[in-house]
Design brief:
It is built from ten helices and 13 strands. The strands form two sheets. A nine-stranded mixed β-sheet has the order 5-4-1-8-9-10-11-12-13, sandwiched between helices.
Length: 330
């Protein structure tokens, strides 16, 4: 791989169209200074200095796809509330269509509030309902996905366990997408493993891999055992287990290796790193790159976003610069 190849990759991505389906989350950040402890309880007092809202969950994956230069379509659910309006506004600002977003009138928009001081999280507060939506909303989601299949190159399933991704939805959309020879990648939760069968790739983190397989993972051999367990249950072609600062374990029929993490600066926030991994990997596969080089690019992209505070995205020029630096090292 060289500079010309990676330039060509990002040129190719301008014509790639990805459909994201999953749990839409609004991330809320409150920043402040801590200078004293509360007299009411042994907890810090945060004097607020700033506040912002960003896209999270499947919406952050869509933002990643958009920032990397590809076209993106999104399908998910919000509540009939101000937070849902904030989320739609954020999508609109990034020119991401809201046509696949379904409104639920009996549950709130999923909101994650993080309180930070000096770029370190003090607490996270989740406001959410995790139950599956009713059959009418499931039907709307399935109908929208099927209506878009002819226009997309791949679908990313973002399962954050907030209800959108259910057995009913998966059993309809995965066979339909695979029958159309589309790339299907999934960021999983533990209770749906058999329903991910025959996807192209799955990208659990280490904790998710343990829960998916009930395998204790304390060694490289355990990683292989966990990946084989996932393969046996799902027949998924490629398994990427993200290992945080250690990188990504890549498993397919030809490769068993840990691709080391690649960062240049201090890690500030790992929120959303998995979103970046699945985004970059899926795009690279759409462009015809091998699993190994798609994984290397995913590592590089994730290494960039963890150096930023909050759920963040990366851009082609950042990745190109890091990729050139990577080539000098190997």
């Amino acid at each position: 791989m060289n500079q010309m190849n990676i330039d060509y990759l990002f040129q190719q991505l301008k014509s790639v169209n990805i459909l994201i389906v999953g749990d839409l989350i609004l991330d809320h950040y409150i920043s402040g200074d801590v200078n004293r402890i509360s007299p009411e309880a042994p907890i810090p007092i945060v004097e607020v200095t700033g506040e912002k809202y960003t896209l999270g969950g499947a919406a952050n994956v869509a933002a990643n796809i958009k920032s990397l230069g590809a076209r993106v379509d999104i399908c998910g659910m919000i509540g009939d509330d101000n937070y849902g309006k904030f989320l739609l506004n954020k999508l609109g600002m990034k020119k991401i269509s809201e046509s696949g977003v379904v409104i639920s009138y009996d549950r709130p928009t999923t909101l994650k509030t993080r309180v930070l001081s000096r770029d370190h999280q003090l607490i996270r507060i989740d406001n959410e309902v995790k139950d599956e939506p009713g059959s009418e909303i499931k039907h709307e989601i399935i109908k929208y996905i099927k209506s878009r299949v002819e226009y997309v190159d791949a679908i990313i399933i973002e399962d954050y366990g907030k209800g959108v991704i259910s057995y009913d939805v998966l059993s309809e959309i995965i066979p339909y997408m695979t029958s159309k020879n589309k790339i299907v990648t999934v960021d999983p939760k533990s209770n749906h493993l058999p329903s991910y069968s025959n996807c192209t790739a799955i990208t659990p983190n280490l904790d998710e891999a343990r829960k998916l397989t009930n395998v204790f993972i304390g060694s490289d051999k355990d990683l292989v055992n966990a990946a084989e367990n996932i393969k046996n249950v799902t027949n998924i072609e490629t398994i990427l287990i993200t290992l945080g600062s250690k990188g990504i374990f890549l498993y397919n029929d030809d490769e068993l290796e840990i691709v080391p993490a690649y960062t240049k600066h201090q890690v500030f926030d790992v929120s959303g790193a998995g979103d970046t991994v699945i985004s970059m990997f899926t795009l690279a596969k759409c462009a015809g790159w091998s699993d190994k080089y798609a994984t290397i690019l995913s590592n590089i992209a994730a290494g960039i976003v963890v150096e930023k505070v909050g759920t963040a995205v990366t851009y082609p020029e950042e990745i190109k610069e890091r990729f050139n630096h990577y080539l000098e090292k190997v």
